[in-house]
Amino acid sequence: MPALGAILTAVITPFREADLSVDEDAFVALLAHLAANGSDGFVVCGTTGEAPTLTDEEHLDLIGLAVREKPAGATIIAGVGSNDTRHALHLTERACELGADALLSVTPYYNRPNRRGILAHYREISRAADRPIVLYNIPQRTGTDLPNDLLAELAQFDHIDAVKQANSANLAQVDGLELYTGNDEDFARTLDMGGVGGILVASHFVGPQMRRMVDEPEQRAAIDATLQPFFAALGVGPLAMTTKAGLNLLGHAAGVPRLPLVPADAAEIAVIREALVSQGLLMKDTA
């Protein structure tokens, strides 16, 4: 088992429907539920956690809450990325002070730095950290890819120990980095190639099955085949939106997304409901 765990759930941030404030009680309850259903740890304040809509105060309060209330044995990986290096340094330093077990640092987005800029950015982040950094490569969101030769160069910096690879075309072992997939549909493939696990969203729902994919490699392909349609169904909309809709259907207090994300509509909810039924998480006669 890798130090941070194999199944790291990119946890949602529950918001109260009345005023869209952070529902801390629901957040803590969700961590406990996920830990009891296969999750080894949690990425807090990532994309699925709607970090772009959190104030810095909310962001850091959630990291601190997760550290204080984490289930026994679980790890907390704090999202600390920004397209402003100064801001990323601030979040990195504060997350370390708050006691996060590791840091998730996304490639700077929108301003799209070149290779030298990426190296300079992460050199500063590595100097500010005193615990493991997980790089996050997701060019479909950031506009910039980290090719594997650049990842290998970044792995030479202190504390840069792993990568969350969300570009399926780049999915490969890189010297000096533990490999996590950022795509649920690539989880089995990542484990098969010797990767340590995934930073996952479907584990909000099918954590026990994903746990079996780690613990029972001889059954991995068969389990993966049964889960691929579920992964696809969650992709009917932005994952923060669809995950909240699914959790609400199961009775968890997930609330609604903050704008610019909107709640799932009737057609999207129908897709998500059917996917939950297919996994035995909802009874068909209640769907």
TrEMBL record:
Role, per record: Catalyzes the condensation of (S)-aspartate-beta-semialdehyde [(S)-ASA] and pyruvate to 4-hydroxy-tetrahydrodipicolinate (HTPA).
GO cellular component: cytosol
GO terms, molecular function: 4-hydroxy-tetrahydrodipicolinate synthase activity
Reactions accelerated catalytically: L-aspartate 4-semialdehyde + pyruvate = (2S,4S)-4-hydroxy-2,3,4,5-tetrahydrodipicolinate + H2O + H(+)
Gene3D superfamilies, A to Z: Aldolase class I (3.20.20.70)
Protein name in UniProt: 4-hydroxy-tetrahydrodipicolinate synthase
Keyword annotations from UniProtKB, A to Z: Amino-acid biosynthesis, Cytoplasm, Diaminopimelate biosynthesis, Lyase, Lysine biosynthesis, Schiff base
InterPro entries for this protein: Aldolase_TIM, DapA, DapA-like, Schiff_base-form_aldolases_AS
EC number of this enzyme: 4.3.3.7
UniProt pathway annotation: Amino-acid biosynthesis; L-lysine biosynthesis via DAP pathway; (S)-tetrahydrodipicolinate from L-aspartate: step 3/4
Broad class of enzyme this protein falls into: lyase
Biological processes annotated in GO: diaminopimelate biosynthetic process; lysine biosynthetic process via diaminopimelate
